[in-house]
Design brief:
Helix content is 18%, strand content 31%. The termini are far apart. It has 5 helices and 15 strands. It comes from Salix viminalis.
């Protein structure tokens, strides 16, 4: 059978696998002493008082997904407003991604070899300490809970958070815009990496910052763990 003829069967099989796969449940928990306007893409947004949890179901096969927290938000009755950090297009119900600085829990579900891929990314900077851990499945959690806001280099300081140097300087040295291998660790990325070894510190930090869990795992994202 040719590869061309077999491709529709492969795609059909993948659709069947995803159709019978269960959605992954994400418990988004605010353990901070202050309110968080949690955000998810896909998923929208939810206000969380200290101690509150948002239960979010994410469809199998979802990729390029992220969860983050917004701080110092003010929204009107129509859900329009703005946040001090992590703002997403001035909307309470997020569509798209948030504005730096914001600590990110990123994931792709039901990928090849029956794996989920997950990471904590500081490529958009840092605003809230975070833990991203499985609540089922045999795999490890990841965490970034250092005092990055308090120790942030002066050049990267922002109201309510600490910017990644790419956001500030917008050059290939920090953003890796010229493609794979076009940049490497810098003193600024080392600042993040030393404090949060599990987290992405710059865009090509893959080898030490991407983790896997078996597909079908459920997760908890905790702010201020």
């Amino acid at each position: 059978m040719s590869h061309v003829n077999s491709l529709p069967m492969i795609l059909f099989s993948l659709v069947l696998v995803l159709a019978f796969a269960d959605a992954a449940t994400f418990d988004v928990v605010n353990q901070c002493t202050y309110p968080i306007w949690a955000a998810a893409s896909p998923g929208g947004g939810r206000y969380l008082d200290p101690g509150q949890t948002w239960n979010l179901d994410v469809a199998p096969g979802t990729t390029m997904a992220r969860i983050w927290g917004r701080t110092n938000c003010n929204f009107d009755a129509n859900g329009q407003g703005q946040c001090g950090t992590g703002d997403c297009n001035r909307m309470q119900q997020c569509q798209g991604y948030g504005s730096p600085p914001n600590t990110l829990a990123e994931f792709a579900l039901n990928q090849p070899n029956n794996l989920d891929y997950l990471d904590i990314s500081l490529v958009d900077g840092f605003n809230i300490p975070m833990d991203f851990s499985p609540t089922s499945g045999a795999c490890r959690g990841i965490r970034c809970a250092a005092n990055i806001n308090g120790e942030c280099p002066n050049e990267l300081r922002a109201a309510g958070g600490c910017n990644n140097p790419c956001t500030v300087f917008k050059t290939n040295q920090y953003c890796c815009t010229d493609g794979p291998g076009s940049c490497s660790a810098t003193n600024f990325s080392r600042f993040f990496k030393e404090r949060c070894p599990d987290a992405y510190s710059y865009p090509q930090d893959d080898q030490t910052s991407t983790f896997t869990c078996p597909s079908g795992t459920n997760y908890r994202v905790t702010f201020c763990p």
